[in-house]
Amino acid sequence: MRQRIESLEQFRALQAEYMAAREAEKRKILVCCGTGCVAGGNLNVYHELKKRMDELGIPCEVSLTEHHDDSVGLKKSGCHGFCEMGPLVRIEPEGWLYTKCQVSDVEEIIQKTILGGQFIERLGYNRGGELYERQEDIPFYKRQTRRVLEHCGHIDAESIEEYLSIGGYGALAKALFEMQPDEIVQVVSDSGLRGRGGAGFPTGKKWAQVAAHTEEPVKYIVCNGDEGDPGAFMDRSCMEGDPHKVIEGMIVAGVATGSTEGYIYVRAEYPMAVHRLTVAIEQAKELGLLGDNILGSGFNFHMHINCGAGAFVCGEGSAMTASIEGNRGMPRTKPPRSVDKGLYGKPTCLNNVETFANVPDIIKKGADWFKSVGTEGSSGTKAFALTGNVVNTGLIEVPMGTTMREVVYEIGGGIKNGKAFKAVQIGGPSGGCCCASDEHLDLPLDFDSLKGIGAMIGSGGLVVMDEDTCMVETARFFMSFTQNESCGKCVPCREGTKRMLEILNRIINNEGSLEDLDLLERLSQTITETALCGLGQSACKPVQSTLRYFRKEYLAHVVDHQHQSRFGHGPGKRGQHGLPAGEMQDEAGAAVHIGFQHPVVRPAQLRHGDVIGQQALAVRAGTQGLLAQALLQGQGQTQGSAVPFHTVMPGLLFRKAGHGQQTAAGHDPGQGLAHQIVQTVPVPQPVTGGQHGLPVLGHQHGASLPGGQPQGQSQTQAEPQ
To answer: In the 3-class helix/strand/coil scheme, how is 500-543 assigned residue by residue?
Structure first.
């Protein structure tokens, strides 16, 4: 039973005691016991190490409260981050890192390293024939700046004594005894800390809004640990590896805003995180760092853990507070916002795990220290879960503004098996895809820069994809996830995502059409503009970004009705003359996609120079004017109906003949609606440079298009207008 601390003086004395005890541990074995390494059997490695050292009479301690002379510290640490090479064991003071450790390696570790002081080369990290002994020298770690994750992998994750030994709860003591609440808010504001949950809202501003409700005797602090994004595990690792840091940040927020109750909302799928948070809370209560009259200051703060049932939507703030209240987790309309009426209708400060974990260092070291890394608008660091087709997967932390190129090639070690890099999906299922262009690779990873390309930081998940990845399949995967996780409250998200998934399934099965692409874009825009909550509003980003940057892959499905085998799909339906359905042959015998299946007008009837009219032609412009579909409506169309000057029919370039003007074909349409086929082209890819201000349809082919620009030479495609 730990003795309760009743004053600041007692706290500082106890902290100094544990700092000295930590320094006395000359040799330590840090066994990674994060979820990944535990799954790989590292708990068995830990127990075997303890067993064999006891059998051999080697002094071994697992707690700072034990005797330390000439003993070896054996610790169950949090996640080291280098998950690709786990299970991991770190040896101090040398800083050696052993990779892919098994129980069978324990005897050699004890005999050669613990007793003999030798590095075991076969357990070290080897890259390209170069052996790395020290953890900090490994490129995966060397390129990082670990602040939030600084102590993950370096301390016993279940020991409050270990946390005190590295200065833990020093920020709380400073906030209670050396600062006023408004000073705390000001320091956080000055630091430029923005919410790490994805939205990037200024943390200090949110705290100030909650603090301003001085008339309310009850306020709440809520920590969002409902990390539901596929491939994301930053918050989980933080809660598992350094739980006291999160708790301390929440208590400081309570002091700043005048809140006395805190809730941590954690996914039930994170049992280790729940366990370690529970242990940490009980330890803090025992020492008087939680509960009533903390450190004798008169300030009270109580903390609770709520386990979510796995609903992705509960990561949204209003859905989360509803779930904590015991109601179904569904978003509500805003305003009012949570800072005014959140949990139980009271002012609520809601931040995510990583945001709170940044707070202790900001309070102890100051706003200028925090701003010393990052960009002007996005200061500090950001943790990412690096996964996918990259050599080094794992948990990383880099300064805001680090480029994707640095993350993928320097930290990640490049693409597996020598494949070409294709894309990164960033921000979870609500994030967009970046492509392999220099523009995207060299774009700073921060809150503002990514918006320009239709992506976002989001939770921090980074899924790397190689040349063999089908981006349509990627979009379908994330849309399937989003659709399944929709709470169903609002129609745009409930029905819109379902329809989009149906369309994507058709396209993947090579049963889609160009009209489906048009419909996908219009549905995406509608859902984004009308969905109730932020999750629904961003649900379409994977589809929107892949349509924007990887449109040719969609066209491979809907134009050719097949997909190259490297994308994992075989040949699709075949039409007349052995060509994929929807194609025809021009005079030279080349395949020319018309994309116009209609019972009246046949593709074979359409050639360069043909004019469609005098029958009225109704033209429906496609999304953003790109994929218009011309539909022959029959007789009786009103003369002079509004038709755009330039219209793209799938596979055809049209020019509207003016009233009484001669077309290139010498046809005088009079007052009717007529369109001349200026050029037939194989694939509708928009580029610039056409004559008369017409868009040109580009294709990797040798012929010239109107305007004199050779096809396939423009790498800079015009953004859809």
So the answer is: HHHHHHHHHCCCCCHHHHHHHHHHHHHHHHHCCCHHHHCCCHHH
Cβ-contact 628, 595 below 8 angstroms: no
AA letter at 395 = L
Instruction: Please determine, for residue 522, whether its predicted confidence score (pLDDT) is greater than 90.
Output: yes
Indicate if 225 and 246 belong to the same structural domain: yes
Most confident residue range from 384-398, 436-450, 622-636: 384-398
Instruction: State both tokens at 387.
Output: 């996964």
The two tokens of residue 264 are 């941590």
Q: Which residues are 348's β-sheet partners? A: 220
Place of tokens 């979870």: 428
pLDDT digits (tens, 9 = 90+) for 444-503: 888 888 777 777 787 788 899 999 999 999 999 999 999 998 898 999 999 999 999 999
Parallel/antiparallel/unpaired status of strands 617-620 and 461-466: unpaired
Q: How far apart are CA 243 and CA 228, in angstroms?
A: 19
Cβ atoms of 383 and 396 closer than 8 Å: yes
614 touches 669 (CB < 8 A): yes
Tell me whether residue 87 is in a domain.
yes
Displacement of CA 418 from its chain's centroid (Å): 25
**What is the distance between the alpha carbons of residues 521 and 351, in angstroms, rounded to a whole number?**
33
Q: Could you report the per-residue pLDDT of 199-213, keeping only the tens digit for each?
A: 789 999 999 999 999
- Tell me what pLDDT residue 31 has: 96
Q: Is 690 helix (H, G, I), strand (E, B) or coil?
A: coil
56-91 tens-digit pLDDT: 999 888 888 876 667 899 999 999 999 989 999 999
Strand, coil or helix: what is 351?
strand
Q: Which of 140, 156, 182 is the last residue of a domain?
A: 140
The C-alpha atoms of residue 673 and residue 528 are separated, in whole angstroms, by 35
Same domain, 68 and 196: no
**Which one of 502, 534, 558 terminates a domain?**
558
The structure tokens 């009270």 sit at 300
